[in-house]
Specification:
The chain folds into two domains: 99 residues, Orthogonal Bundle (Endonuclease Iii, domain 2); 121 residues, Orthogonal Bundle (Endonuclease III, domain 1), CATH 1.10.340. The chain is built from 14 helices and no strands. It has 244 residues and is mainly alpha-helical. Helix 2 packs across helix 3, helix 9 crosses helix 10 and helix 11 packs across helix 13. It is globular, with a radius of gyration of 19 Å. The protein is 59% helix and 0% strand.
Amino acid sequence: MTKLNKKYREVEKILLQDREGLDLRWYRLRKGKSTSKKDANKFILGAIIDYQIPAQQAWDNSERLADEILGDPDNIWEEINKYSHKRWMGKFKQFRLHRFPKAHERIWKIGKRILEKYNGDTRNIWKDHTINNTLSNLLNLGMGKQISSMVIGALIDSHILNGKGDVKADLHVRRVLGRVFRAAEYLAREVDQVISLTHSIHKNNPWLLDRGLFLVGKNFCFSKRPLCTECKFKKVCKFYFKNK
């Protein structure tokens, strides 16, 4: 076994062992139980907003939109599309759903597509579909590769889909893997390298690495003053050995 392959196995072992004790519940998805139309729609709404802002803020904002602003309707997308495009964009500052106007607009655009293609029921995106078909459906809606990967992973965690998926290569995941393997975080333009690396670490199902990597990035591997001595990867991390 090469030195690099040994490192793959060490990182894999750490992440898979830790996963056993993690809370893998997802907003509005109940593991092993059927999902209502309303809950599925609220989950996808949160996923749409979870884009270049902190994850908890995104999910909180989606709940505020659905429950407080729209009044907890049976069909979120129908209510959103009662706004004309111009009127919806005029609510950017009032609704405070995202820091970017384009991301605010994206909610309206994807909602319109969900109404047209899936009759306002996002369960139809994955119902009776394979993982590959579900991924294609999400991408065709304009969800983007990383958010689509997260949705697939959440559906796997919730036992709604069976199979394997890719990590969502967000900032936390890119930073942790970059520092562990090359002493510097991967940039946004290097997402394909990150995905390839996770396949080398755990090819059977790279998605299983996602939550552990995210939590290390969120709680220890900060951009400044990371808590390296408390990190589970310190024995295999190039960044730690370079800077200790």
